[in-house]
């Protein structure tokens, strides 16, 4: 029985190795969207506009003060195990609410995003019974799926702090698209 | 009636973290100059030499080296002053925020008191007392604002004066003799061995100029030595990173084709920057930007796979600190992905509101990997053995000791998270043969915590386990003598097993899905990440527990093989290289 177990384990490991070979069949995410340089450029531009809308509408509705933003795109690998061309592209922004509580801020963000014509869902509940997240999905004109997410932190000085991110799904970038992300 | 005093308006505070960026850029430049000076001195001839053209050329190099020394001395002097200025301004910026909050409160108080004064209600008995109390606070606030303004002016005057001492060639040449003796300092550091507490004490006793000189001349040593404070490590590593990337980018811009090794260095540097960027425009629960620190950067380690570590939040001051240890297939070119996971762990933990959190993506050991070269195969076979985990465990112990040595104040609540083969590394560090001592340990997608640790109680810390039912790597654990240890999800091991999502079903001929399952433990909005966040936030008692595995993993394999049929099972074996087959035949007696 032990030898049978070992034999099966060996086959599993071998098969895994095939999946990870750099020079042969390399590991790839199960789902990704192929994107070239032009589509990446338009998607970047779109999500920068979108973060402006997401932060401004949410902040205005909640009576918040915007926190400084670089208005710059960031990107990261879909997982450390996958080749560099598989990446998320993301942008962030945030605001602080001087006079508010987390529950009401969550509700106001949801309402603001509803007014934008999005379909926000409230959730999270990292602290039991207390929603702290508003999330919506959208598609860029390039067809890239986007997730818009606000997380409302219970600020240490009683002033909720909101982080908003817009992130693409896992992209498979062409070489020129990948090069365009270099600094 | 007592008059209501109004607080003075807040002065502007234009200082931003961009100040640090300037210092960082200057330091990278100084590092390059220091390298140039080193090369020139190594090739220079003794002073006063005459004779053959080659010797004369060397003599010229000696003279130029002297000029480069002057430039380096001027930059070190300037950097020391700028660094001190940034430290002071960070403090003053914090004070400014406090004053801003105070101003807001006093403004509200003014409005409230005026409303009471103008009220048509009967006499307000406590109004006068409240106004006097308010006025006293205004007086204190006004004094604090005035002090703050003076402090800013003093800090600016100091840095301007210091820079003024090094802004001519003559002055710079005069500074050469006052530059700290770096070789002697490095000798002192070397004699301390690897004791992070002794190193921390030694470092703190150095002058600011000595620290700056070390960071500029030997960033790869200072940046990667456990026990040196995180800000100094970050300074040194960023200088190293920036100097290296600038050099490679310049080569590309000049039309040179990078060699394979150079391209690897270039990709690594891009990935490190991408990793650091994860914190960009993100804020903590105080509304402050989340800092990112490059705690480790050694692109030449592990035969060029590279080591790196990125911290989000400050582990020297945070209430909770976590370290993510990755598994097979990880190298520095992928640290941005690992950093993304660590960032999400930090964010998830912080949402619990139990205090501040710092999370570290630690890629500080030679994780097993796979590629089609002979060396790559040999390297990759390490996944079936424990030797890389053992070596990695020693590095991890040293790294965590370094975190403790540099703590400001009480020890934090500390969690170490091992994924895949990284969980074996964690097990070996926290187990019977290691010295790692942390509060909580999380093992996800684990093939085993090391054969010498068959029970959770063999590890120092509370042990939490996340294993997706169809994660084939987590099914490699067994009590056999060729495994990486007992399956941590099994009842016999005895860890607290928590709920995770399983995004798909295992299939012998669908390795994309199989890998997807194995790499999904840190997916945003996953049950797994939520439970990991709970442990990191010291809410481990609240994880969503699930039952342990009861049947041996061999039964699971057999069931999966029966479901898929022999053709699919055989496909995995037939596709691998002959050399790998031979190795396994020898090791397991197969064939």
List the helices and strands and how they pair.
The complex is a heterodimer of chains A (183) and B (591).
Chain A: H1 2-20, E1 33-35, H2 37-62, E2 65-66, E3 74-77, E4 86-96, H3 102-115, E5 121-123, E6 133-139, E7 145-153, E8 161-168, E9 171-173, H4 175-179
Parallel strand pairs in A: 1-9
Antiparallel strand pairs in A: 2-4, 3-4, 4-8, 4-9, 5-6, 6-7, 7-8
Helix pairs in contact in A: 2-3
Chain B: H1 18-43, H2 53-117, H3 127-164, H4 169-175, H5 182-191, H6 196-205, H7 208-217, H8 219-222, H9 230-253, H10 260-276, E1 292-298, E2 307-312, E3 320-325, H11 335-350, E4 357-363, H12 374-380, H13 387-405, E5 413-419, H14 421-430, E6 440-444, E7 462-466, E8 496-498, H15 511-518, H16 527-536, H17 553-574, H18 578-588
Parallel strand pairs in B: 3-4, 3-5, 5-6, 6-7, 7-8
Antiparallel strand pairs in B: 1-2, 2-4
Helix pairs in contact in B: 1-2, 1-9, 2-3, 2-4, 2-7, 9-10, 10-11, 11-16, 13-14
Description:
The complex is a heterodimer of chains A (183) and B (591). Chain A is an alpha+beta fold and 183 residues long. Helix content of chain A is 35%, strand content 27%. In chain A, strands 1, 2, 3, 4, 5, 6, 7, 8 and 9 form a nine-stranded mixed β-sheet that branches. In chain A, helix 2 (37-62) packs across helix 3 (102-115). In chain A, 52% of the residues are buried. Residues 14-25 of chain A have low confidence and may be disordered. In chain B, strand 1 and strand 2 form a beta hairpin. Chain B is flat and about 85 Å long. Chain B starts with 17 loop residues before the first helix and ends with a helix.
């Amino acid at each position: 029985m032990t030898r049978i177990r070992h034999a099966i384990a060996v086959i599993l490991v071998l098969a895994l190795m095939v999946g990870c070979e750099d020079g042969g069949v390399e590991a790839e995410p199960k789902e990704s969207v192929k994107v070239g340089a032009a589509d990446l450029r338009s998607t970047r531009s779109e999500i920068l506009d979108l973060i402006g809308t997401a932060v401004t509408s949410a902040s205005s509705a909640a009576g918040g003060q915007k926190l400084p933003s670089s208005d710059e795109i960031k990107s990261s690998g879909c997982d450390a195990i996958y080749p560099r061309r598989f990446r998320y592209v993301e942008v962030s922004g945030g605001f602080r609410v001087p006079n508010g509580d987390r529950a009401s801020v969550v509700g106001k963000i949801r309402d603001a995003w509803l007014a934008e014509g999005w379909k926000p869902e409230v959730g999270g509940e990292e602290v039991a019974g207390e929603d702290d997240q508003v999330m919506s999905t959208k598609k860029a004109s390039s067809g890239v799926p986007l997730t818009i997410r606000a997380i409302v932190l219970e600020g240490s000085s009683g002033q909720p702090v909101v982080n908003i991110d817009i992130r693409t799904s896992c992209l498979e970038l062409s070489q020129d698209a990948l090069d365009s992300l270099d600094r | 009636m007592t008059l209501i005093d109004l607080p003075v308006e807040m002065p502007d505070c234009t200082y931003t973290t961009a100040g640090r960026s300037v210092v960082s850029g200057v330091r990278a430049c100084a590092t390059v100059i220091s390298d140039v000076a080193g090369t020139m001195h190594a090739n220079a001839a003794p002073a006063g030499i005459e004779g053959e053209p080659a010797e004369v050329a060397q003599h010229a190099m000696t003279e130029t080296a002297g000029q480069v020394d002057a430039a380096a001395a001027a930059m070190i002097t300037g950097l020391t002053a700028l660094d001190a200025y940034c430290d002071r301004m960070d403090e003053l910026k914090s004070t400014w925020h406090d004053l801003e909050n105070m101003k807001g409160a006093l403004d509200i108080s003014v409005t409230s008191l005026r409303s009471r004064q103008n009220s048509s209600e009967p006499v307000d008995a406590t109004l006068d007392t409240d106004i006097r109390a308010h006025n006293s606070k205004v007086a204190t606030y006004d004094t604090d604002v005035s002090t703050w303004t003076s402090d800013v002016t003093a800090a600016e005057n100091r840095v301007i004066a210091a820079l003024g001492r090094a802004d001519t060639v003559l002055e710079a040449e005069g500074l050469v003799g006052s530059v700290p003796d770096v070789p002697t300092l490095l000798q002192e550091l070397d004699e301390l061995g690897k004791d992070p507490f002794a190193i921390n004490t030694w470092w703190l006793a150095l002058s600011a100029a000595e620290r700056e000189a070390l960071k500029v001349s030997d960033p790869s040593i200072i940046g990667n030595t456990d026990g040196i404070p995180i800000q100094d490590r970050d300074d040194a590593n960023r200088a190293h990173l920036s100097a290296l990337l600038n050099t490679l980018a310049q080569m590309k811009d000049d039309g040179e084709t990078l060699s394979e090794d150079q391209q690897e260095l270039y990709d690594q540097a891009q990935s490190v920057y991408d990793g650091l960027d994860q914190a960009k425009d993100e804020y903590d629960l105080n509304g402050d930007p989340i800092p990112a620190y490059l705690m480790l950067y050694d692109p030449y380690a592990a035969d060029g796979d590279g080591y790196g570590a990125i911290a989000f939040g400050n582990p020297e001051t945070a209430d909770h600190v976590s370290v993510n240890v990755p598994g097979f297939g990880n190298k520095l070119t992928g640290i941005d992905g690992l950093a993304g996971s660590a960032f999400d762990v930090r964010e998830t933990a912080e949402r619990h509101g139990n205090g501040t959190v710092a999370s570290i993506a630690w890629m500080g050991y030679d994780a097993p990997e796979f590629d089609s070269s002979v060396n790559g195969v040999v390297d990759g076979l390490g996944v079936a053995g424990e030797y890389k985990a053992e070596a990695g465990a020693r590095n991890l112990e040293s790294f965590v000791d370094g975190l403790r040595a540099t703590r400001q104040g009480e020890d934090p609540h500390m969690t170490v998270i091992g994924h895949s083969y990284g969980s074996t590394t964690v097990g070996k560090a926290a187990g019977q043969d290691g010295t790692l001592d942390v509060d909580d340990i999380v093992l996800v997608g684990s093939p085993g915590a090391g054969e010498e640790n068959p029970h959770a109680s063999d590890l120092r810390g509370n042990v939490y386990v996340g294993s997706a039912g169809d994660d084939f790597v987590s099914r490699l654990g067994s009590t056999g003598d060729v495994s990486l240890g007992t399956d941590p999800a099994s009842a016999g091991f005895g860890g607290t097993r928590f709920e995770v999502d399983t995004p798909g079903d295992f299939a012998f001929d669908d390795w994309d899905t199989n890998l997807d399952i194995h790499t999904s433990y840190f997916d945003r909005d996953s049950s797994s990440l939520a439970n990991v966040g709970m442990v990191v936030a010291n809410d481990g008692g609240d994880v969503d527990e699930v039952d342990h595995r009861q049947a041996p993993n061999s039964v699971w394999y057999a069931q999966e093989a029966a479901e898929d049929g022999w053709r699919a099972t055989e496909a995995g074996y037939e596709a691998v290289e002959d050399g790998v087959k031979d190795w396994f035949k020898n090791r397991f007696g197969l064939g």
